[in-house]
Structures are given as structure tokens and as C-alpha cells.
Amino acid sequence: MTDLSRNAQVLRYLLQVAPGIGRTKLAKFAYLADLESRRYLGKPISGFEYYFDQRGPFDSGGFFSALRELTARGLATENQVPYGEYMGYELYATSAAAEFDFTAAEAEVLNYVAKTYLAQTARDLCDDIVYKTEPMLAAEPGKPLPMDIVNRAPGEKLEFSLQRMLAGEASAEAGRTRSLADVMRELRTGTD
After folding, report:
1. Which of 21, 83, 182, 187 has a C-alpha 20 to 30 A away from that of 114?
2. Domain spans of the chain?
């Protein structure tokens, strides 16, 4: 069990997959990971509470608290860099080991989001992806985002279970498989 807050774990994990991203992309990656997790797992990965503010979906207090936690513990670094007339930040996970308590499905969602959107600029990520999500389209400025509108209900019909699919992949990689011929023979004879 880790003693890192759940929000700090999310940010650190994302930084391991997408080193060098800025604060905006990191915050939006966390939002998109929570959104995808709600769709496929029925619940968010983090404890962030997103509000519609001038920066889109954001939990200012939660985000900066988690970031401070990471930097104070030597698990992340922030480098200030010039971006035109503004100063920005590049964030990196350090070489210090971090413990996570994510399920395989949660880790897969985090990986998917970071790898899928890494090449996007922060502006394109916000304009083309984040601002067009269901919670943002239904949001009211200054109020919490209605994130529950994308939750997958327990038992809701879905083409697949992400957790079962990942468990099956892990079993196959570990060599715990049966040939199709064996499965078909068992089905025909009614044996295991």
C-alpha cells in the first residue's frame, strides 16, 4: 500500500508515461483518464473534483496539492521554461521509486490517455478533445462538472469488460492457455 495520495499517484503515473508535459496537459490527462475510467469502469481513478473555470475542467486545489506532494517528496520536478511571451512548466517524474495501488484496468486507462494524447498541443487537446466531452458540454461556469453523466452503471451491458480482458491477456502471457481444439472437444463432450 502506498502512502501517496490517490491524486498524486495519478499525476506521477501520467508523468512516467508522458515525461516533460506541462501543467495544462497533465491536468487534462487526469480529467480524460477519469472520464474514460467512468465510461469503462463506472468510477473515476482520481479524487479530483472538476469545475468549469477559465481553464476548462480543473480542480485547482486538488491539482496543485498533488503536485506539491510529488515535488516535496522528490517524486517529480518542475522546470520553468519560456513559451513565447509566457513562462510555462515542464514536469518530469524523478528516478525515485513510487508505489501505486491502481488496478490493471486503471493503469491501462492512464496509459491509454497519456499515449493517445501525448502528441497533441495543450491548446489542441483542450479545443479538439476536452472541451467537447459530455461533462464540458453540459457544464455551467464556476460549477462542478456533471461527471456522473458518463458513468457506466454496474451491470450495464457493455461489449466487453476491460478488467476481464486484461486478466485474459495476463493469463495468456503467463502461458495459462488452452487450444481452440481442446476447448471445442470439451464443449462437445461436456468435460473440463
Report:
1. 83
2. 6-153, 159-192
Q: From CA 126, how far away is CA 182, in angstroms rounded?
A: 50
Instruction: Give, for all 192 residues of the chain, the pLDDT tens digit.
Output: 679 999 999 999 999 999 999 999 999 999 999 999 999 898 999 999 999 988 789 999 999 999 999 999 999 999 999 988 988 999 999 999 999 999 999 999 999 999 999 999 999 999 999 999 999 999 998 899 999 999 976 556 655 566 666 666 666 677 777 776 776 777 778 765
Instruction: Indicate whether this model's pTM tops 0.90.
Output: no
CA distances from 60 to 49, 56, 109, 180 (A): 9, 11, 22, 52
Interatomic CA distance for residues 177 and 175, integer angstroms: 6
Which DSSP state fits 18? S
Spell out a b/e string for 84-113, using b for 16 or more CB atoms within 10 Å of the CB, else e.
eeeeebebebeeeebebebeebbebbbbbb
